[in-house]
Here is the input.
Amino acid sequence: MRAIRPKTRTHAREHIVTIDTDSAPRIMFSGENLLMEDLPVGTRVIYPKRPMTGVANPRATIRYALNHPEDSDPLHAMLSPGMKVTIAVDDISMPLPIMRAPDARQLVLEIVCEMLADHGVDDVHIIIALGLHRRMHDWEIKRMVGQKVWDEYWPERLYNHDGCDPDGMVVLGHTPHGELVEMNRRVAESDLTIYVNLNFVPMNGGHKSMAVGLCGYESLKAHHNPKAIVASNSFMDPPKSYLSHSFKRQGQLIERTLKVFHIETVLNNRAFDGPLSFLTKNEDDFTEGDRLKFAGMKWALDRLPFTARREMFMRTPAAYELIACYAGAPDPSHDKTVAKLNEQNCVEVNGPADILLMGIPYISPYNVNSKALNPLLVQVMALGYFYHMYRNQPILRDGGVLILTHPCSDRFDPVHHPSYIEFFNRVLTETTDSYTLETKYQDEFAYNPSYVEMYRRGNAYHGAHPFFMWYWGQRGREKTSRVIVVGADNATVPAIMGWESAGSIAEAIAMARGTMGRSAQITMLHHPPYMISDVM
Amino acid sequence: MHGEAKYKNSAAFYDVDGTLIKTNIVHSFAFYASRHASFAKSAMSTVKTAASVPVFWAADKLSRKWFNEIFYKSYAGWSEDRLFELSEELFTEVIKPNIYPRARDLIEESRRAGCRQVFLSGALDFTMRPLARYLGADDLLANKLEFVDGYATGKLQKPFIAGATKADVMRAYAKQHGIDLGESWAYSDSFSDYPMLAVVGHPTACNPDFRLRSTARSYDWPVLELDEEPARAADRRPQGFASTRKAFGPIRSLRRGRGEVNH
Here is the structure.
């Protein structure tokens, strides 16, 4: 293995590097392994911004937010003895990777629960607002909420939302656009709901928290469909996202019907620190120590079996820190949240790329503690999330070529993703057209009693969830001319998804240049941690 | 909302022993064997049954048909009314405590989806009837003992319900009731029920044995673990209010205490 050569960097902006003749090779994730790739001269590599400094006293920051909310009375002023309160809290899908204890949600919950007890509010339930995600395992919940809240509330008053419980859901009404709004019955019957969320990307939080986290399948159909995805330009730019507009309409109906107090926590992007901090550095700035660490890690990853590599990554929590906390009404508090997230994550980029390179890591919002990043989730990371990590205009121009690195193994977790297996092998081999899939098969999976049972009492994603994942990539599929996967360990998986395969980055770039021309602009997104390209 | 039935011409076929309940036909017979009119007969019959277990096991491994022929001979001479009368007791004492925790939930989900609920068992019909009633099955298709003058001959009426015959029975049932097997479900724990699973559009392995688990993985069939407790489904009723203050009271006291010191 070649060494990464040191180089004194002269670029003005530290988060955008242009490869020249003596640049170091770049590190890219490829599932549970790392690649080191030489990129063509002129390739633009976009790095995330450095992590913002966390607040000095997270508990004080949270208390301040509760006492100085946006467009709302302070939380303590809304409480009275004997009232019925429900606390809803985001599930394990964020942040990625999971953060070191204490989780930001634990800090908020401890403060809020204490405040409720102080005010004589005893009828308190905590619901994991998972929407149609899988139920969290008890040990995951315990880690997230902390020992104190766990001891006090589990299991009678701390539990997972169940969007398929016929007795546990109510209809609140329809938006002016005809979108159905369903709600968890306990929440609908509470005097006050306190939503504790964890903001990691701008598409989350705000009205989405209540409208998606506590809804049922039929109301999710309003926005989790191919039409809404294609109309979202992009997910990460809420004013231009059809998804966000739909969440907002549903959320406004909820706000009119129910009393809700939002608490939004914002994290920085310190995904790796300590021995792994070299993964976030510009390779030109590597020290001898960084090179040794990378070489050692690569040596080990090349030799360890898949399960061991996966465990190693999954058991390495991120050192995220709280950088802000806002509370009160959803719109003003979320506006501040999005501004803070953009301050942390947005990188100004001049013009879109013709060819976009990205390494797909081992994790997505939907496979935390799962046995694999299955092919559908590889697809959603590439064409759903990473493709949409832009504002103003797409980072990959329309008709451009997307190159991704991942083994694309035919591995699924049968406990977490049972319906994905049938979707991928039975349905996707028949058609990849999202509109056909939606009308022909989606309800069949959604109401399949085996999948309903696995969602409600097991730990499986809802039967319709693989459809949403496929739709998530719809805009990316429509806007790219080719998708080329590098390092796939089989030909079948890329073929089913309509992708081409290449043996190396060099081969993939040669293929892409066949479409985009020799002078095509090549850009590589250097993540994780993720960044949002502000394309001018 | 999940209120409306989505499947109009579908059925869910359940193997019973090992799929919905922990026990099997040997447990049922052992119960009858221990319920003879006299203590001596009961003791002898129980010992005989226990001694026959290796024979039953070997016969089952070689052929389900042989097993049935050998095993059901044990019922020869039993009176019909006594077998029927004791079936309720058998259900209460043996079967009911051994229903898998999530069996009823699965049946409820399936019924809510609009499927007809059919139990398809190689056990004897009178031993399964109370269970079918309890779990709300619409139909029970099970083996029947032959009786002559009110006494069991030790033979089964044909067709024997086992292995490939289960698939034939399902096809006949579907034809009779206008069921679309392509839109139906089948649930079993054993590879011996492969024909039953293969005949429907939605086969599902439940608490599968090793061979069935491997087969399910190969064919991308879902695997349900009905023998596991639901993932701590919570009682939604508020309870334990007083303890909230108890838990967070100490924090409050500490904070106030610290404040006093600072003053």
